[in-house]
Each structure stands twice: as structure tokens, then as C-alpha cells.
Amino acid sequence: MGESSHQHTKMMLKDHKLHIKKKFGQNFLIDDNVINKIVDSAMIDKQTSVIEIGPGLGSMTMRLAKQAKHVLAYEIDDDLIKPLKTLFKGESNITLIHDDVLKRQLDDDINTYFDREDRVVVVANLPYYITTPILFKCLEESDKIDVLTLMTQFEVAKRLTASKGTKDYNALSVLMHYKTLSTFEFKVNRTVFMPPPNVDSAVIRLEIKRDRPRIDEPFFFDFIKEAFRQKRKTLINNLHQAYFIEKEVLKHMLSSLDIQATIRAEALGVQTLMNISERIRQDFF
Ligand code: SAM
User: Which residues lie with the beta carbon below 6 Å from any ligand 1 atom?
Assistant: First the structure.
């Protein structure tokens, strides 16, 4: 693939008489600089194996394969499989899997296609209609993934990486801080896609935390949802409504943790929220 990704995309569409499918969230990247920046931010070397979700017309896949040990790419669209197989013919380190990524067992695939000692990263220009299910699948299903470098909608990227006290900070941001070191890498203008989507995009980097504290995760995840349920309400009001604990008792509990009674969840970082969650679980459940 010597030509630019823009030329490559046009050629693939024309040569294989392809139609771009909105239902699969197909917005193909046609800017080599953006592709290079994504690959750079994933820090890929010959000890790194890459999972790419949705190779599309293969521009980024080819770029990833140059730098990585192995690329495992999942593509759902029947019509793209033959063109991709032709494109990947001489590339011995690309494995194309024709399937819906949500139906795969990621751990089984990692064990089958990668070596045990590989560093494993996920790189994807995500189909936006299933960003959250894909993200949760990667975070929940495998403890072998080290880093996720993802293109998402700009607004989603801001929420996933938001810090406490900012307007984008919500339950999802807390969950990301709990599971990952999340970084907003760069904003991407809609004009670098064919066709351009209706929204701007951004690339984020999520580095999985290996040394997470031992807490009751299902309780904590439910607690975060409840703490942020009504953003304008105080934490005490939200918790009172969720757990039926008297406000005075909650006030006393917060005060023992040095937290003001008037605080809102959005002002608290992940560690403090974890402390409160564990206190409630131990004292009342
Ligand atoms: N990586 C290509 C690029 O950057 O130009 C294409 C990105 S496009 C935003 C998303 C790709 O994901 C499309 O090729 C689409 O067909 C594919 N896709 C959509 N849903 C999928 C799913 N459930 N499993 C696997 N691939 C999927």
C-alpha cells in the first residue's frame, strides 16, 4: 500500500464496487497524519500484538502491521472480507476474523493467536453505535489487554477522561479512573473521514491499572451510578434515595471521613468515592 490512505480508500471502494454502510458505523479514516498519530499513541513495537476492531478498508491495519508483531482484526461487514483478504495477502502478521467483535471471547482469541509474553493493545476507530458495549467488553473480558487506544465521539472522549470537578465528570469517568489511567490524546476533525460523521471525534488512551485495590466491585459500580444519579443533588440526597439511610447518619459518616455534608459526587475523586462506598457496604449491608 504505497498510496495515501485517501487514495487507497477511493481505490478500494471503486475497485471492489463497495457501498459505505451507515448501519455499521463506517466512517473511514483518510488522513495519514491522524493514522500515524493513533499508531504512535499506542506505542507499538515488535513485542506488541494488536487487536483492531473494524479494519474497514485496511488503511490503519496495514500501518499497524508494519510496526507490530501481530494484528488480529475483527470485521463484521461481509462485503469487506474479500477486499481485505486481497489487501492482506502478503502480510503474514495480519489475521482477519470475519465476525461481530461482540460475539467473540477475546481471551480465547488472544490465547489462540498471540504468544503468552506479548504486550497486547487494542487499537480502534470505533463504530460509534456500539462504543460502550465494545469498551466494556474489552475492560471486563480480558486481563491480558494492557492499553486501549480508541477513536470515539468527541463528547464521549471528554466524559471518559474527565477529571473531578469538571462538567464532563460523571459515573463513567469514575469507572474509567478506577480501571485505567485515562488520557485525552487529541481532537480529530470530522473532515478526516469518508464520509464525514455528524460529530467531531477524539482519540483517547486507556492504560489498564494492574494494581487495583480489592473492593466489592459490583457494589461500587452500583454506588457510583447512585451517587451521580441526579448530578445537581448533594451526595447525601442521592444516597438517601438509593439506600434509604437516614440523612443524619450519612452526614455523620461523611464527617468521619472528613467530607462536607453539602458535597456533590462530581467534586470527589475515585479514591474518596471508593472509601465512601466501602463504608456504606460495611456499615449497612
Ligand atoms: N478502521 C477503519 C478506518 O479507520 O478507516 C474503519 C473504521 S469504521 C469507523 C468502523 C469499522 O467497524 C467498519 O469497518 C465497520 O464495518 C466495523 N464494525 C462495525 N460494527 C462491528 C462489529 N460489531 N464487529 C466488528 N466490526 C464492526
Answer: 24-29, 53-56, 59-60, 74-77, 100-102, 125, 127, 130
Tell me which residue has its CA closest to atom 1 in ligand 1. Answer: 55
pLDDT for residue 1 is more than 80: no
Quick check: 132 pLDDT over 90? yes
- Maximum pairwise Cα distance, the chain: 70
Give me the residue label for grid cell 439506600.
Answer: 243
pLDDT at 188: 98
The C-alpha atoms of residue 40 and residue 68 are separated, in whole angstroms, by: 11
Cβ atoms of 52 and 61 closer than 8 Å: yes
Contact 76, 54 (CB under 8 A): yes
Q: How many angstroms does the Cα of residue 68 sit away from the middle of ligand 1? A: 20
Distance 241 CA to ligand 1 centre (A): 41
pLDDT of residue 50: 98
State how far the Cα of 130 lies from the Cα of 134, in Å rounded to an integer.
Answer: 6
Range(s) of the domain holding residue 169 = 5-208
In this structure, are 191 and 237 located in the same domain? no
Number of domains in the chain: 2
What CATH number is associated with residue 42? 3.40.50.150
Tell me the β-bridge partners of 183.
205
**237 grid coordinates:** 440526597
Judge if 200 and 244 occupy the same domain: no
Chosen domain end from 183, 208, 233? 208
For residue 142, give the H/E element and its range: none
Q: Domain containing 266 — which CATH number?
A: 1.10.8.100
Domain C-terminal end among 208, 240, 267? 208
Q: Is the pLDDT of residue 162 over 80?
A: yes
pLDDT of amino acid 213: 85
